[in-house]
Amino acid sequence: MPDALQDAFQIRPVRRSDLARWLPLWDGYNAFYGRSGQTALDPEITRVTWERFFDDSEPVHAMVAESRDTLVGLVHYLFHRSTIMIGTNCYLADLFTIEAARGRGVGRALIEAVYDRAANAGCTRVYWQTHETNLTAMKLYDGVAERSGFVVYRKAL
Predict the structure, then answer these.
(1) What is the mean pLDDT of residues 54-63?
(2) Model pTM?
């Protein structure tokens, strides 16, 4: 692929027409976290996730970074209530850029775009989690947010 970032990039909401260009980013994100091959997401999850982005009754949203008609990054986020604050929270669920976009400000711009959307929606906090081995991303995250100190526990049901 030619250097898609020779020109500036823009952050914008995902469009229905982006599906074929969004899907490789989504697949790359999932592969990064070990969800590929035999452990790949069920295609129905991807289909439902995609549809949620365009359903006004859903709190799930998506934006992409685009340069020269190439999608170079994605971010998914959702709004939700909390038991410890009155205001709404924003959970940044997924962030991914193509390798050529890393270190060029795309990830930071996607995070900042979520901050803007969350502030405009009246949110009082944006938060996210990453795997402890994602050290490269954590360098960025340490510059744009503070670590909460919380450890995530989960149990599949």
Answers:
(1) 97
(2) 0.90
